[in-house]
């Protein structure tokens, strides 16, 4: 046998602390056919700075779809099926780098996914630029060992093979045909090279993490050894590995036989279904009256044709896959949403999810029993949703499992007529829905009974669109797309249905009121600015108060939300107003010439608008204008002090009662904003930030110019009688 090794690599990704599925970094690989050994090379590293501490990285594996993980221990939505992923942890303690190998023998071909993340996020809101987070990097590489000329077993034909040694097992494969209800594997003869009784172990199937359903058969002696399997995977290659359990220098000769039991499905003619599909899509078009009549006749003949084929092993219902959007598919039954279900043979529906881009959503299957259609009391319609192959023996075992996978059971009855199943991240494959009518014992009319079940099946990116307290986000890793829910207002879970830590309606209203009404503290600053004739500054404060109020009213995670315009526009205007307010306040304190002050106002505002467009959350967008304005202010104060030959401002009352309180409030506000905000206390710490900043502005604004008189509204209003003084100079003639 000729083995070929292949190597696949992807670029390293920076890991994040986990708060929702978007924080997990996903790696997508594709394992080729006839792979006998798969080895993952996992490399984790961290930075060398003092901020880097010991860390544990969680890594999850799954075949066919991204891993379904729950690091936070939250609840999944009702009717959702959850099977844990295969997980390992990689520790980064004293070592800067850690390399881990994971080996998988006889892996299943197709898509394999790896998800890696750091522990739960602390919830602290970090201002970009104030702290340097430690970089934790993770990279996954894949090595595969593939057999180029794997022998093929022909069904029904005994085939001799030789196991050279225990260190070199024999790998063969057999193709499973469609509609195969069972498979039987036989080891007819087994002899060693020294004519002794042999001992071999036969492994059927491939490993699929997180759960592996390989079948192991141990054969000793020369007697026949066999294994029967129900519902093998349709239209796939089944890998078989034979290992010798004897001595190291003895070869083993075996003769293997694989046989299949294939049933004859009963369904409406594909030609009739095609005509029915064309008629349903075309509608009543002009000039198609005759075709429409034929289509209606064909659609009416389909149920009669199906009911006449109850002698077959299954009744197949035609299903059309309708792609709606990215990771969004609807399945439509050609013969109507209701399907007939009887007790003699299962009714089968094919749900095609093998495009390679369907595993990033949620498969939803809903059943609704028509109670009037069930003639027998206490009858139950059982169903099974399975991948790769259907379950065709529901009436005998009631076990929703196939040869190499475990399905998802469903049932409806007259007592409970509705049932729903949610499969999170369904694996890439052909999925089947099997339905069959089960009757209580002693019911003689059961063979002739029939039930009508309405089936709704669709693939959606996020179940229920993440509900009212979540947002469905479409994530991308290279060309692969998958969806996840980002929850808010304390809600959690896969679909934002876990209300363990959810905020009440009262808490949401309180948060909205605090964050919005705290901006009214700018009113004193606006009044002071207007009183002292700083009208441009007052306009900037009014702008900041208005957009900060409505931005926080729109930014709320719960139901107390009001958006007067686009969210991004409100956020940009809020950030712009905040930085410009600081800019004009410090320049106003500098007491420079008016023409220079207004030039700096306009030029600084334009530069701030540009920098916020580049990086809205960068710390230097606020610190840069502040520092530059402080430099201008200090230079202006030094110039004034040098010119007057004493400290500027010269009044100690100005320092004690205005400047020092304003500076203290500003420093406290910066400390709260940069170091104290978390996701839990955001609504009141950020409200404190609003109050402190607004109060500091009111204290820091300088007094009005001496040559300007206070506002005297009575003198400004001229709509009254007044005594006018004639200031005209009197000229007298000298005689």
UniProtKB/TrEMBL annotation:
Residues 458-497 form the EGF-like domain. It holds the Pfam family DUF3522. It is found in: Cell membrane. Keywords: Cell membrane, Disulfide bond, EGF-like domain, Membrane, Transmembrane, Transmembrane helix. Disulfide bonds join 462-472, 487-496. It is a multi-pass membrane protein. Residues 304-316 have a biased composition (Polar residues). PROSITE patterns: EGF_1 (PS00022), EGF_2 (PS01186), EGF_3 (PS50026). The keyword tRNA processing does not apply. The chain crosses the membrane at residues 510-534, 595-614, 620-639, 655-676, 682-701. This is TMM8A factor. The lineage of its organism: Eukaryota, Metazoa, Chordata, Craniata, Vertebrata.
């Amino acid at each position: 046998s000729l083995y070929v090794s292949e190597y696949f690599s992807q670029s390293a990704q920076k890991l994040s602390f986990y708060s929702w599925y978007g924080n997990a970094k996903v790696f997508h690989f594709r394992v080729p056919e006839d792979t006998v050994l798969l080895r993952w090379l996992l490399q984790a590293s961290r930075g060398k700075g003092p901020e880097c501490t010991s860390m544990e990285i969680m890594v999850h594996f799954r075949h066919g779809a991204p891993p379904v993980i729950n690091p936070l221990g939250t609840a999944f939505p009702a009717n959702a099926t959850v099977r844990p992923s295969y997980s390992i942890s990689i520790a980064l303690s004293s070592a800067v780098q850690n390399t881990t190998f994971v080996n998988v023998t006889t892996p299943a071909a197709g898509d394999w996914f790896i998800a890696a993340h750091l522990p739960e996020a602390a919830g602290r809101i970090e201002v970009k630029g104030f702290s340097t987070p430690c970089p934790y990097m993770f990279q996954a590489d894949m090595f595969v060992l593939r057999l180029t000329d794997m022998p093929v077993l022909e069904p029904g034909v005994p085939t001799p093979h030789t196991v050279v040694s225990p260190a070199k097992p024999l790998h063969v494969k057999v193709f499973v045909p469609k509609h195969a209800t069972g498979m039987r594997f036989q080891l007819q003869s087994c002899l060693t090279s020294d004519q002794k009784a042999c001992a071999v172990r036969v492994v059927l199937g491939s490993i699929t993490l997180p759960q592996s359903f390989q079948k192991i058969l141990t054969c000793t002696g020369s007697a026949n050894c066999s294994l029967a399997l129900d519902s093998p995977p349709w239209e796939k290659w089944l890998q078989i590995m034979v290992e010798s359990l004897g001595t190291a220098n003895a070869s083993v000769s075996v003769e293997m036989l694989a046989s299949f039991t294939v049933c004859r499905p009963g369904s409406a003619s594909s030609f009739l279904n095609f005509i029915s599909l064309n008629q349903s899509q075309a509608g009543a078009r002009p000039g198609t009256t005759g075709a429409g009549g034929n289509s209606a006749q064909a659609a009416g003949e389909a149920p009669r044709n199906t009911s006449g084929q109850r002698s077959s092993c299954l009744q197949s219902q035609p299903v059309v896959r309708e792609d709606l959007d990215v990771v969004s598919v609807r399945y439509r039954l050609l013969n109507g949403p209701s399907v007939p279900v009887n007790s003699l043979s299962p009714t089968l529906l094919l749900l095609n999810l093998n495009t390679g881009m369907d595993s990033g959503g949620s498969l939803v299957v809903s059943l609704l029993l028509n109670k009037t259609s069930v003639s027998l009391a206490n009858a139950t319609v059982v169903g099974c949703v399975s991948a790769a192959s259907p379950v065709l023996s529901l009436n005998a075992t009631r076990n929703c499992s196939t040869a190499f996978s475990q399905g998802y059971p469903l049932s409806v009855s007259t007592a409970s007529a509705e049932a729903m199943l949610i499969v999170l991240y369904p694996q890439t494959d052909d999925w089947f829905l099997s339905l069959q009518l089960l009757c209580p014992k002693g019911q003689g009319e059961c063979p002739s009974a029939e039930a009508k079940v309405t089936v709704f099946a669709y693939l959606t990116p996020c179940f229920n669109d993440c509900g009212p307290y979540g947002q469905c986000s479409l994530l991308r890793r290279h060309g692969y797309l998958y969806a996840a829910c980002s929850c808010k207002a304390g809600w959690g879970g896969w679909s934002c249905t876990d209300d363990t830590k959810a905020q009440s309606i009262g808490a949401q209203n309180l948060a909205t009121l605090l964050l919005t009404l705290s901006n009214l503290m700018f009113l004193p600053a606006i009044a002071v600015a207007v009183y002292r004739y700083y009208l441009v500054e007052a306009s900037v404060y009014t702008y900041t108060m208005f957009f900060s109020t409505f931005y926080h009213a729109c930014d709320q995670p719960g139901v107390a939300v009001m958006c007067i315009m686009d969210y991004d526009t409100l956020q940009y205007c809020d950030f712009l107003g905040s930085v410009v307010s600081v800019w004009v306040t410090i320049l106003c304190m500098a007491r420079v010439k008016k023409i220079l002050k207004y030039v700096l106002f306009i030029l600084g505002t334009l530069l701030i608008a540009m920098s916020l467009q580049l990086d809205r959350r960068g710390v230097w967008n606020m610190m840069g204008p502040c520092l530059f304005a402080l430099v201008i202010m200090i230079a202006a104060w030094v110039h004034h002090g040098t010119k007057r030959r004493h400290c500027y401002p010269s009044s100690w009352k100005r320092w004690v009662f205005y400047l020092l309180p304003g500076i203290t409030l500003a420093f406290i506000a910066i400390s709260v904003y940069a170091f104290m905000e978390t996701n839990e206390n955001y609504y009141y710490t950020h409200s404190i930030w609003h109050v402190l900043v607004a109060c500091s502005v009111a204290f820091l604004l300088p007094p009005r110019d001496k040559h300007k008189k206070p506002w005297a509204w009575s003198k400004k209003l001229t709509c009254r009688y007044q005594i006018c003084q004639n200031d005209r100079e009197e000229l007298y003639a000298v005689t």
